[in-house]
Known about the structure:
DNA-directed RNA polymerase activity, RNA_pol_subH/Rpb5_C, nucleus, DNA-directed RNA polymerases I, II, and III subunit RPABC1, Dna-directed Rna Polymerases I, Ii, And Iii 27 Kd Polypeptide, Chain: A, domain 1, Eukaryotic RPB6 RNA polymerase subunit, RPB5-like_sf
Amino acid sequence: MFFSEEETTRLYTVHKNSLKMLRDRGYEVEDSEIQLTRANFIAKYGEHVKREDLEVQKAMQDNSSDKIIVFYPNNNKIGVQNIRSYIARMRTESFKRAILILQKKLASQARDCINEISSLCLIEVFLEAELLFNIKEHDLVPPHQLLTTAEKKKLLAKYTVSESQLPRIFVTDPVAKYYGLRRGQVVKITRKSETAGDYATYRLTIMFLVAKQ
């Protein structure tokens, strides 16, 4: 396969931003991995990069048994059989979470397959185009911090509210997707105000809006 300079730069950028995303989620990622130059990226993976060689395996900083694997399929069309092979590998190697970084959108049948096994293992899907920039570094995106279960409980008790009374954020929101937020989790968003200084708001992660009866 012929690789242009643009394609090499594209994969270098995608790979770098995926590592930043993992570290922002709390996974153990070394500075040297993120600071890898384009020249060293080529030296490591070759001028004709095979996407599957970019695979990443990481564990959470505070829990080495909580692992994630990032797949970079060579094929630009991923079907049910491909998904099943990823699931089999996740089970064999004890990964409960994975990320697929794809060149093109996933076929509906393959996505259905992912949804069917979501209670056993979680597979997230990103397009390469989504990782050509880091949304967290955008000037208009304030800092987000995922609350622990204990912090969420303390927050609800402090304001004497139920979680359903909190403002909401969809799991499909680009920032929620970046942090890998799941339904029921609460995220703290810190914004700046010229008059009030820093202030925090909280959002409950949901799948979809519930229509009023």
